[in-house]
Amino acid sequence: MADIQVLDKTFVPFISKEEICQRVAAIAAQINIDYAGKRPLMLGILNGSFIFAADLFRGLTIDAEISFIKLASYKGTSSTGHVVTAIGMEEDLHGRHIIIVEDIIDTGKTIHSFLPELKHRQPASIRIATFLAKPEALQHDVKADYTAFEIENKFVVGYGLDYDGFGRNLPDLYVLKG
Ligand code: IMP
Ligand code: MG
């Protein structure tokens, strides 16, 4: 694989689509076991998770539903001064087994600020599946239950992840050069 250019930056090959496919299949297999008979609802966080969510969902052989939400953050009145609200969450989550699907847990802020709103809807359970995690960047008490790859604290693009909106369509994962 060759280096690629996304906007003004150069990225080098990092994780191949074959390796990605293997890890996603392994997570789907684990979810098939863990959620047998439970009819989970996968909740993909847009935009970044759409490709991982699609591949993961196709790997499920159990009964399962999928829905997508967008998170918008604004300055709220909470002690943190920061509130995240979900746009497009129309499903009744009461009593459901929810699997949040994320592209990456970086600082963990996104998931951390969204969990209270989710819990408020009284699902039966909440787990998190993330394509990537950057443990060194983590600033909140958030732990994914399913992680395809833990990576160093470096900027990556591809497989749904973007640099300024571009690069999401790359089938492999690339890391910023230098
Ligand atoms: P958080 O810091 O865990 O809240 O992650 C915030 C968001 O930052 C993620 O959902 C991604 O959209 C984005 N992000 C974090 N690291 C990267 C990266 O290396 N490449 C592309 N997007 C990233
Ligand atoms: Mg994202």
Write up this protein:
This protein has helices at residues 17-34, 50-58, 109-120; strands spanning 4-6, 9-15, 41-46, 65-74, 83-87, 97-105, 125-133, 146-150, 156-157, 173-176. The chain is an alpha/beta fold. The chain has one domain (16-73, 104-173): 3-Layer(aba) Sandwich (Rossmann fold), CATH 3.40.50.2020. The strands form 2 sheets. The protein has a 6-stranded mixed beta sheet. Helix 2 links the parallel strand 3 and strand 4. Helix 1 crosses helix 2. The structure holds inosinic acid and magnesium ion. Magnesium ion is lined by residues 45, 48, 103.
What attributes does this structure have?
single chain; 178 residues; alpha/beta; Rossmann fold; 4-stranded antiparallel sheet; 3 helices; binds inosinic acid; binds magnesium ion
**Total count of strands:** 10
- Proportion of residues in helical segments: 10-25%
Shape: globular
**Class of secondary structure makeup:** alpha/beta
| Series of H and E elements | EEHEHEEEHEEEE
- Topology-level CATH name: Rossmann fold
Roughly how many Å is the radius of gyration?
A: 16 Å
Catalogue the ligands.
Answer: inosinic acid, magnesium ion
Largest sheet data: 6 strands, mixed
Strand order of the largest sheet: 5-4-3-6-7-8
The domain count comes to: 1
Q: Give the N-terminus to C-terminus distance in angstroms.
A: 17 Å
CATH architecture: 3-Layer(aba) Sandwich
- The total count of helices amounts to 3
Which regions contain 5 or more consecutive residues with pLDDT less than 50? none
CATH class: Alpha Beta
Share of β-strand residues: 25-35%
Average pLDDT for all residues: 94
